[in-house]
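Q: Hi! First time asking for a complex rather than a single chain. Here are the components, and I think there are two in total. Is that enough to go on?
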Amino acid sequence: MSPLDDQLRAAMHARADVLAPSPDPLAGIEARARGIKRRRAAASVAGAALAVTAVAFVVPALDLGGRAKPATFATQGPRVSSAYALDPAAPWAYRGTAAAKADLAAVQSAWAARHPGSTLTPLFGQVYEPAATAELAFVATGGSDGPRYGFVHVPTAAAPSFVYDEPLASGTAALPFALEGDEGRARLVVVAAPGVTRFEYAAGGVTYAPMTALASGVAIAAQQGTPWAAALRVTAPDGTVLLQGDAPDQGAGSQNVPANVLTSWPTRGTVADGPDQKALLTSFAKAFGRTPDKAVYRALYTGTSGGVRYTVGQAWFSGETKAYDVSYATGGTQGPAFFLGRATAGAPAVLAFVLSDLPGSPSELLVVVPQPRTGEISYAGDATVAFAAVPGWAARGVALIDRDPKARNDRLQVLDGNGDLSAPTYQGPVGALLCGYSSCG
Amino acid sequence: VDEPAREAFRAYVAARSAALLRTAYLLTGNRADAEDLLQTALAKTYLSWDRIRERDALDGYVRRIMVNTQTSFWRRKRPEALYDEVPDRPGRDQHADSDLHDALWTALAQLPAKQRAAVVLRYFEDLSEADTAVILGVSVGTVKSTTSRALAKLREDASLRDDPRAALPDGVLV
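A: Yes, that's all I need. Here is the structure of the assembled complex.
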């Protein structure tokens, strides 16, 4: 506490504590409620098209966290109590193929090793063709860890890989999973009770579109747009909203990625704007003299500049322990450009990348990806000039800076988003952030 | 709203309206606007009563409506119209610090709506940064920086600048 804190608190209490409440305010409240209801009804009748527009504007304004995302009351699991809730003691009926359950004994065994005394029940299963791998969504009960749910890949020649292993909240009525998809594009699989048919996905977080049914009560969508902005809604046949909230991002629930993968960092930008990620994975694998079949990429930012399509992020080999900073660009005058950086530091404040082959531009593009929830990003072209805020960083989530290719003493400042304005998250030379596989500078 | 729900709502209003009126008063700066704001927030709550399942979180729900509604009021009014409004004073401050409290109260009225709301929620309601963030609809980091800037602005106020009792908390950059 400080003197100002104390005095402020005392001043407010001195003013407010002596207020006497109004006698019997209920009548006035009910009258006001009727007025609000009438106005809402009138607005509703005035035109459905207008109402849709209003939702698009009003809902983001109620956002939690400042991102353009709908306000919701549930994200990982809905907090509803309904006939559609998943009871681990009497789980939903299994949907999917028998082949997916072929190795159930091995899955049970691996699960029991993770959670002694716990038994899982498959809810949905399929053989995912692009990877030729069986996969199962399940719920588990028993043991000391309480009810859990998860998702497991069951390769034919390897141990089961639990990509989701989460506690099951009471009243959960839909299980969303973000999973690796084809060509580096994540897919979103949602499992709900049999009979639930209305699954919707909003790539930008505002406009919902129906997902594709896989089975009764199971749906899929390819992630698109900006995964961190995407939203999900599941509605029961009786109109009860079973789940509405942030769509999970790929990697967020993964149990099998290297420890230095920045799973808490959102994927920013627009994946569709970027280059082919299969080519990126091929380049990454080739840099290590390997084939790309086990290479995995997670974008941190994807965008375009001057006709150059680029993506920056992390790549690794499935089952291994290190992820590397990488970038990849196409559309430059010299053809596709792959950059392999160092193994990502454990908890970096920022990652920075330079794109130098921008047709028609005398500048390089410095792409600065900060850790989540940082404050203002500023840049100084050399050691003598003052920092100037980078325009557009807040809306974009990353800073895009036109950089003189000859710059050697330019500096970057990333303020702490925790309000301590005197302690920047990063303040120092840009060169120190530009590290290749073997050296920085 | 059926009769049992109406009765539950009536009980909630009876139990909590005095406390919520105090918050509304600090958000608006005068009793008439405070009563109007609280009535609006409770009316919206009444309409949503059947859909609110977490009754333990009702105060937060009502506070959030009040903050959002007050911000809307603020947006609709020209700032100078609100600044011209001298807050009424419902009771006499008995503390020896009453001059300072008067100056703080006046300075509080000059803050932008969100900064004022952050100060009220943090220092009057004693809510955590996380709870304040939920009500304001922003991140915890934004709560911290908003509160920090509000305190810095209060300290910059001419009537408080030279008062040692209004010293800034450690770590706040003015």
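A: Residues 74-96, 168-174 of chain B have pLDDT under 50 and may be disordered. Let me know if you'd like any chain examined more closely.
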